[in-house]
Write a structure and sequence with these properties.
Order of helices and strands: HHH
Radius of gyration: 26 Å
Structural class: mainly alpha
Helix content: over 70%
Number of strands: 0
Distance between the termini: 75 Å
Length: about 60
C-alpha cells in the first residue's frame, strides 16, 4: 500500500523539468553581458562626487 506522499514523489519524478544546460549557460552569459554594459555606462559614486565638487559654488551641500 503506497502512501499519498510516495505517489506524489513518483509523479514529481516523472514530471520533473529537464534543464537545458546549453540554454541556461547562454542565458547567464547574456545576462552577464547586460550587467557589464550597464556597469560601463553608469557613473560610480566617486565620479559623481567629483562632478558635484567640480563647480566653483559650494552651494551643493
Amino acid at each position: 500500500m503506497t502512501t499519498i506522499w510516495e505517489r506524489m514523489a513518483k509523479e514529481w519524478r516523472i514530471s520533473k523539468p529537464k534543464i537545458n544546460k546549453a540554454r541556461l549557460e547562454e542565458d547567464i552569459r547574456g545576462n552577464l553581458d547586460n550587467v557589464m554594459k550597464t556597469i560601463e555606462k553608469s557613473n560610480s559614486v566617486p565620479s559623481v562626487l567629483d562632478a558635484i565638487n567640480a563647480d566653483a559654488d559650494d552651494d551643493d551641500w
